[in-house]
């Protein structure tokens, strides 16, 4: 998943602090700094990238350990940066290398460091002419995360979209506070997944007795049209609407999805699933709207209570899927016209939105394998 770090300008602490707090408010919790590590840690739960021994990620190559790539040896295997990075890795440290790309030799050094370190930060004066594509392509099979240093929105977009893969992350070196929020919004947009929802026809609607039902309360407000993908089969999930609508029986709970029984699947980020029984406070789940657009949400609370259930079976082309939901007026699916329909009003022949997965699931991950679910 794409990510962002920040390196605030080297200025008075109060001004630097404003840059870092703006980043934190935008969801960026990794800070690269060489001089104010102690002050930064006081701001909250932050991962610090620095050349100090107690840093969360040890920095090599910028005004500290290593040679800063300013005086390259003829034989790059003798680079002090490589030696220092290798030494830290032998001590089981997490290491980031900082390389200013000013020549072909700097590019070659970056590739060598990329085979040693955990993170490779690339700094260039103009990413339109720096061979970022070459470095990404050469290191794509390595475990290293490639990061491009950027100063504004356009540089960030270019770095993240270079080649089909783009860089894994960006290091924001902002010239103004507003760039931080703009880049954070770009990251959210890139990270969002789109699901191709299908219209399935209900073939069975039947009360089945009681079971342990899970309610997921998130830390986000869901709008009308948004809910979660939930179902009894990993190959097919129903779009279960949030409780964002008012009812004559209960006030709206726009943060909640009444999700179904404990054994059902729910879609989580990165096209993974979890059993509802596994979801707990602090986990991330995927909010999906009726167009298939998504956003991540943090779980604030999970409630499990015994409730009456209803069985829903639907068919799309030759594929049949099922799910169980609480049998109550406030639980809704989404129709083919984008309208919400209470499970108490559903009947055979109604059309609802579902998501079908071509693969099977192994520990929640989609895999290319046939599987029978019934």
UniProtKB/TrEMBL annotation:
NCBIfam families: PRK02290.1-4. It catalyses: 2-amino-2,3,7-trideoxy-D-lyxo-hept-6-ulosonate + NAD(+) + H2O = 3-dehydroquinate + NH4(+) + NADH + H(+). This is 3-dehydroquinate synthase. InterPro entries: DHQS, DHQS/DOIS_N, DHQS_C. The keyword Oxidoreductase applies. Its EC number is 1.4.1.24. GO terms for biological process: amino acid biosynthetic process; aromatic amino acid family biosynthetic process. It comes from Methanobacterium alkalithermotolerans. It comes from the Archaea.
